[in-house]
Amino acid sequence: MDEKAQEKVSEKPVQEKSIEKLVVSSSPHFLRDENIPKIMHTVVLALLPAMAASVYFFGLRAIGLIVISVAACLMTEYIVQKIREKPVTIWDGSAIITGILLALTLPPSFPYYGAALGSVFAIGIGKQLFGGIGYNIFNPALLGRAFLQATYPVLITTWSEPLSKAAKAGVDAVTAATPLALMKFEGKMTSHLDLFFGNVAGSMGETSAIAILIGGLYLRYRGYINWKMPLGYLGSMAFFGGVFWLINPAKYPDPLFHILAGGAMLGAWFMVTDMVTSPVTPLGQWIFAVGAGFLAILIRLFGGLPEGVMYSILLMNAFVPLLNKHTRPKFFGEDIKA
Amino acid sequence: MALKTFNHGIHPSYHKELTSGKGIEKAALPKKVIIPLQQHIGAQCKPLVKKGDAVTEGQKIGEISASFVTAPVHSSISGKVKDIEKLPYPGGGKVLSVIIEGDGTTKEWGNGSIGLELESLTAEALRNIIKEAGIVGMGGAAFPTHVKISPPKEKKIDAFILNGCECEPYLTSDHRLMVEEPEKVFWGMKALMKAVGVENGFIGIEENKPDAIEALEKVVSGSGGSGIKIVALETKYPQGAEKMLIKAVVNRKVPVGKLPMDVGVVVNNVGTAFAVYEAMKYNKPLIERVVTVSGNGIQEPKNLLVRIGTSFEDVLNQCGGITKDGEREVLNGGPMMGISQTILDVPVVKGTSGITVIAGAEIKPNTYQPCIRCASCVEVCPVNLMPYKIGDLGRLYRLDEFKTWGGLVCIECGCCSYTCPSKRPLLQWIRVGKVKVREREKV
Q: Which of B180, B211, B122, B205 is nearest to B305 (CA)?
């Protein structure tokens, strides 16, 4: 340290005379050890049980679909960011999540090229067109799936039995109806236990409630999801589902069936909770989650489709800016007169 | 029983262990001091001395009699006025300052005790002593104390809170005062309460300072029926912010745009109470204070009793100096609300509760990512704002919306910036918005 130089500080502009080269910033000067990649990679970790269950129930083809989707998502993100001359951030984990979630919502027999196409749409149109991470209005994975639903309405509703049941029948693959379709079109119920463990036909990552629950609870434990979201969504489905069940138990399924079947669990823990596309205010979060649960039940029971999770969340995504605007929390001391 | 606290807030790593066990040491007598003529919120003092004048320790060298919201400043050493000029101020910008070169002599304050007893003093006299001693809020804001304890007659004050939270990471100056001088702090508190004319007193201390709670508990119970209660609070930042403290201790919310006195409360800091004691008992003005010198960029963290006007460099050198290599950031205050210094030749002032030196990897990055609406900032904001939103509105100068969304309600605690995973400098942008609004409204 040059002390003589310090002596003269007062006479000339400060910066020129400063010999210490100190960092100068606005407070606060120390930040939480947290960043986007850390959050996203934790979500990927939380999806591992659901991915493992998909492989267990539907075989190696599940791995193929996941790998293809993730790869297509990463490539699309890379290409778009190159074209837009933006920094390439494909390893922040968000595109990986989109790829995994999209794959998990597909039937196990879905063609690889279809999964790739859905991924390109999810990232290219659903995310990057809006400006990339943080700017998208709709959940990219669900938007990708909605695109595939419109493009391949038959393929995306062609389900197969889990491996164990197919083996019992002595063949490689058996097409089958999902529990929700059985309920809706044939009035047949599936046992809660099969739904809980996932030994039923369906989208490959959605069938096992327990696997999704483990991942979801892990996220909650890590503090990355707000308990209002899954609770509001599942609670709302159980409540509104329960109302109709009480009206006519012969026709409508019980509340537990609603939250175990179809995409309810995956939606509740990994899609309703998507940070970018859900509200930030406590009241907004409640309205969002409860509203989406209500819509899902309406579609399931009275819509043309057996499953309503995807559209329920996409519809509520559209209301997020409005919800944020009209559910501002009261400022500290705002409601008080002195 | 659950500890009292407020809603939201954050739990940063406090690093208090670096200095919480270290007793207050007297810093070396500085050869030169720089005394800024404004170390408080309010009107700047006029110098009472000129170049070449001899001054003695404790002599009043700056005052402005025309203004109420102001506090006089005193020389912290004996010697000669070398110059009076505008010099860098640790709170930002430049302030007219008196440079004094010491003659090496010191004054013994303790022996010349005038031993004023509280019973013999009127509230009026107490306020006057506090004003003459140049005492200001020593938690950092430096609002003149005599103003704070003179609420207008129509405001009925029924509770006094002594702020012993010290929620800033690293800082332990109030903590050590409570542990080492609990009687003096308690006495100062009673004097302040008498000046305000209030019977009901609370001492709010975060539970991470059990020794301070115990020390004061002993003094309070020894005094018998003093009407003063110690309230252990949850360790959470910003527990020491006035509005948060009032909510936690007496469960009252200060309305937006109002002051603590509007809900019948006056809050003062532990360091302030100690200064009041010294002013009463020794007739000693506010010329030195306890400063915590800490951080990962300092060799030997310490709690030092430093004369006002001593340069940061002088203080840091008494703690082994700062890390030589790599990036360093020197703060007037703690890491949450402290102000970065551009040079080390700035003086310790009345509001300097600590000097924190951050180095290496602890220095925050200067890049940020897009907001992912994770809502962390909304979840931590103690005044229930939506920081991600008002931050953007401030940054974009959308001032009407900035006001509608509560930009001016912000207490600048920094919880939002701290918690943001995208490292967005939210508070910085909110400050920009506030400044712009004020500029516009002045015109």
A: B180
- Cα(B417)–Cα(B331) distance, rounded to whole angstroms? 17
Residues from chain B contacting residue A22 (CB–CB below 8 Å): 328-330, 340-344
pLDDT at A312: 96
Asked if B320 reaches chain A (Cβ–Cβ under 8 Å), the answer is: no
Residue B88: what residue type?
P
For chain A, what is the mean pLDDT?
Answer: 89
Nearest-neighbour CA in chain B from A272: distance (Å): 13
Q: Looking at chain A from residue 211 to 250, which residues have their Cβ under 8 Å from any Cβ of chain B?
A: 226
Is A175 a residue whose pLDDT tops 50?
A: yes
**A275 to B374: CB separation less than 8 angstroms, yes or no:** yes
Please check whether residue A39 touches B, CB under 8 A.
yes
Q: Give the span between the Cα atoms of B117 and B192, in whole angstroms.
A: 13
Which CB contacts under 8 angstroms, 24+ apart, belong to A56-59?
A: A57/A162, A57/A163, A57/A164, A57/A198, A57/A199, A57/A204, A57/A207, A57/A208, A58/A108, A58/A160, A58/A162, A58/A163, A58/A204, A59/A108, A59/A163
CB contact, 8 Å: B404 with chain A?
no
Q: Which of B93, B218, B68 is nearest to B148 (CA)?
A: B68
DSSP state of B28: P
Is residue B48 within 8 Å of residue B63, measured between CB atoms? yes
End-to-end CA distance of chain A: 55
Domains and CATH numbers, chain B: 120-282 (3.40.50.11540), 376-442 (no CATH)
Nearest-by-Cβ selection for A28 from B247, B389, B417: B417
pTM recorded for the entire structure = 0.90
Backbone angles phi, psi at B34, to 5 degrees: -115, 115
With an 8 Å Cβ cutoff, are B340 and A22 in contact? Answer: yes
Q: What is the CATH number of domain A36-325?
A: 1.10.3430
Say how many C-beta atoms besides its own lie within 10 A of residue B97's C-beta: 28
Contacts of residue A277 in chain B, CB cutoff 8 Å?
A: 373
Going by the DSSP 8-state scheme, the letter that residue B258 receives in this structure is -
Whether A205 contacts A104, CB under 8 Å: yes
pLDDT at B112: 52
Half-sphere exposure of B203 (CA within 13 A, CB side): 33
Tokens linked to B193: 């309460």
Q: What is the ipTM of this complex?
A: 0.88
Shortest Cα distance from B394 to chain A (angstroms)? 15
